[in-house]
User: Fold these one by one.
Assistant:
Number 1:
Amino acid sequence: MRTATLGPAERAEALAAMAERELDVLVVGAGVVGAGTALDAVTRGLSTGIVEARDWASGTSSRSSKLIHGGLRYLEMLDFALVREALKERGLLLERLAPHLVKPVPFLYPLQHKGWERFYAGSGVALYDAMSLSSGHGRGLPVHRHLSRKGALRVAPCLRKDALVGALQYYDAQMDDARFVTTLVRTAASYGAKAASRARVTGFLREGERVVGARVQDVEAGAAYEIRAKQIVNATGVWTDDTQALIGERGQFHVRASKGIHLVVPKDRIHSTTGLILRTEKSVLFVIPWGRHWIVGTTDTDWDLDKAHPPPPAPTSTTSWST
Ligand SMILES: Cc1cc2nc3c(=O)[nH]c(=O)nc-3n(C[C@H](O)[C@H](O)[C@H](O)COP(=O)(O)OP(=O)(O)OC[C@H]3O[C@@H](n4cnc5c(N)ncnc54)[C@H](O)[C@@H]3O)c2cc1C
């Protein structure tokens, strides 16, 4: 395997090569799902292409809360299988797959009730850590600890004294989401996948009932290509319905777009050495350390306007926080 470059020359070569010979798999959309699919396909020995309408990870995959988490709150919903799988993946990313991109991040969970809450939440994080360790890939993170009110205020002096009776601190992981996707695409290209950004699918080629290829517009140079493939993967995230509509049929899936807002706050405005996880009416709110900033979020509301550029609402709107 040689390390691939994703430059203009490689992009032009990739578009020409995809148009020349039928691929086994063409992936449409290069967010984390498309990039991961392309890497999976090419490392199985399949001839693979991936086209992205804008830049790598320019959709949701560069606008996440940047957490690689095992889904602690899914434990409360008793979805053990999901948590087990997510913790295993978290461990693999931390230890083996991308230790240069995925880092541990501490979270403080303030306790508001004496007694039962420490037992309830403490059992949850203990189980979370135990499941992580038993996945065989959990050693990359410190285990949780119990803190008194004084101890909690020492690590997070920003908290109001009367807002907590104590706290738990546990670890999850975070990554640079856009860089992570770009690395996936580049790794796929290193294994021989053909990858072109600024290449939008504008229609599909059909033979009878079968979709046998895609029409791709080179958004940079204006040229149009027909790329044929035995299988086409629609990995266009919130654009899934638009992509399905290009086939002229109602697809199997309907994706409901929702919008999540993060507040980005300079580091010195919140006096804390740890991230925070706080309960909200509907879900949880994260305060996540991110370089010289904190990311605070996120909201979760339906969105049916421009998917490429969801702006924040007018200041008068009400928001509900969750992630
Ligand atoms: C606010 C928020 C916070 C989140 N936080 C986290 C988190 O902390 N951790 C976590 O694991 N997950 C998080 N998620 C979930 C995660 O971000 C998404 O599940 C993931 O990014 C979806 O990736 P995707 O590849 O399906 O979609 P996208 O990243 O949106 O990729 C779809 C791509 O398809 C392209 N495309 C569309 N139409 C075409 C076309 N016609 N031709 C070619 N390309 C096309 C788009 O340009 C886009 O790049 C969060 C989600 C939100 C909304």
Number 2:
Amino acid sequence: MSTKPHWEHVYQTRATDAVGWYQPEARTSRALIQEIAPGTDAAMVDIGGGASVLVDELLAEGYRNLTVLDLSGAALEKARERIGERAAAVVWQEADVLEYAFQEAAFDVWHDRAVFHFLTDADQRAQYATQMQHALRPGGHVVIGTFALDGPEKCSGLPVQRHSPETLQDAFGPDFALVKSQREIHVTPGETEQLFNWCVFRKND
Ligand SMILES: C[S@@+](CC[C@H](N)C(=O)[O-])C[C@H]1O[C@@H](n2cnc3c(N)ncnc32)[C@H](O)[C@@H]1O
């Protein structure tokens, strides 16, 4: 069953800076993206980007080929309103990452913070990997942050599948090579600490 009603309700009823995943600055994402895609013409998609400020920061860095995809139209509307005029330079896609008809090899970078971990079913994870494989160009990169194995068991009240670099590698398969991984402690607006596992994978040529 789709979780779209859940997410629409969250974004319609809660302030964007009050949700557990809120971060005033997308520091880890931005640093990892800049390491692997320093050229500002890189085509990037933020999967389940929601109302994240990552897109604001990437626009400010000069990146000009940005797509934000999310199940929730309310989330995308909040981000668009916040960004104002510059939002017109971004492609906003209200869609389910598992269903969306991505163009083949469209992106250099596939970014996901706290979305893949909602896929608690192995079939969904396989579908996600197929979508990613299709949408990334050969040599493109995945930048992904999930709750770590010792992170929380729920996110936004929904159960999650926690991950390590090894479990992500298993899910993505041999077409993706692990480039680096790191841990991050995210402090929620309610001052709870959440352990994230961040990985960068490169799609083989
Ligand atoms: C925990 S929030 C993280 C939002 C954002 N990535 C951030 O770091 O601020 C999860 C986001 O994933 C979106 N989402 C959940 N399942 C999705 C799916 N199957 N396809 C697209 N977006 C999805 C939700 O609407 C929500 O915006």
Number 3:
Amino acid sequence: MTSWTVRSVASADARFVLFPSMGEYRAYDDHVYDAFDAADDRHRAYRDAVRAAAHGKVVVDVGTGRDALWALEAARAGARHVYAIEADARTAERADEAVASAGLGDRVTVLPGHSTEQTLPVRAEVCVSDIVGNIATAEGAIPILADAGRRLCTPDCVWIPYRMQTWAAAVDLSASDDLALAGESLPYLRAIFDSAGGPFDPRLCLAGPVDDVLISSCAPIESVTFSSGAPPQCDREEISLRIAAEATITGVLLWARVAASRRGGREVDCLTGDTRAWAPVYVPLPSPRPVVRGEHITLALDRTTSDDGVHPDYDLTLDGDRAWHAPHHGGAFRATPFYRRLFPPAEAPNG
Ligand SMILES: C[S@@+](CC[C@H](N)C(=O)[O-])C[C@H]1O[C@@H](n2cnc3c(N)ncnc32)[C@H](O)[C@@H]1O
């Protein structure tokens, strides 16, 4: 494998740090599953939606995770039966243990394996999943849930979440041109490169206070709605953003917003809300560009399914020009000045 070094910093020592977007790779460990257990906005929104929908119903939980959170919540809310599917074998074993220790083994069946390879003895009337990515569609929710809708669910199934979106805004990080990777996230980056067979320019999340780096209005750049009897709807959105101040666009921030339930309830916004499950993705432009207040920019996010058949590759265009090419795996390494600075040549000292 190509050798690589990366600029890294302890996150406590920097105003902003980067870390790799992980959900679209097999890079979860206990720290990540612990974050899903946090009693935050996501947790409350899913919990309320599951409690409202599950009573008396057959439920399928696609990607139940280590703690079978929503499968157990559905069973406690009186679901007739819950099928909890988990692709990762070790995680499925842990989910089985969680179900047994909750004493709900007679009401929850854990099915190890990918949902597309499962069949159920009866179709589910409620489908709950959190395969929402930092870019909402990045974990393959569209093909995975389209398959579940066709084969595992009833035509009038209740979908949790009901809608997931990716929002976008322009940002100016020119005052932070020394952006580095959080040292704590290096093992995850290694796991991602290993799973892809070598290094490539990864999708990067931004941690830090974003309020004063946004320099434009914001709008949803992809929006996926799940409704009864229809495949997930996702139209290509071309959005126009108004620049709010004289600044330099160094990049675009993309972040998820998730409506767990169709009937009102809370919409989780990973930029402004309290959630540890998602983080905004920083898309660095190939070359920063000065802008003035009142100017408009046009953005579009094109999505094609990668050669694994599940995870999307993305292209972001800015005013009609390709500004970011982000294949799920196997893309270029150090393709732009931003990534060459982040991944300095191997002989340079690390950090
Ligand atoms: C973000 S975690 C969510 C865990 C838990 N459901 C929650 O909401 O806290 C996503 C889980 O889905 C699993 N997964 C992803 N795609 C899957 C699929 N098609 N079939 C089964 N499991 C899947 C992953 O292995 C991971 O454990």
Number 4:
Amino acid sequence: MKCPYCGKEDNRVVDSRPVEEENSIRRRRMCDACGKRFTTYEKIETIPLMVIKKDQNREQYDREKLLGGILRACHKRPVPVQSINEIVDQVENEIFRRGEKEIQSNVIGEIVMNHLMNLDPVAYVRFASVYREFKDVNTFMDELKKFLKTEPEE
Ligand SMILES: [Zn+2]
């Protein structure tokens, strides 16, 4: 993706949203070289992305469902809706960029968890407990310890 102003390839996505009617994603980009901003439209796969669930059944990828799961994890947490929408956008960017027609549900779950970990620890653990189906409190504590390990040690 070349910058239309200076022709350099290095730029970052500053905003990203799906344009449903045109089946594409609108992205605001910022050039690392000259700092100018520009908009690109990228086609997303027209064949629907299928999610492979744990029981091997397939269902069509559903943004609302993903959003709902993250909203539940963030219930009564100081997390702006804007941040949640950004996470969904980032997750979609990652899963659609793979260019595959099917994706394991746990792969999506791991991507979501990576983003939630940086956003809110409670939301992260809640989401992880649903996604990984913690059987007992020990599994839950292991996950919590893993998270706490990412904190800098004194
Ligand atoms: Zn530029």
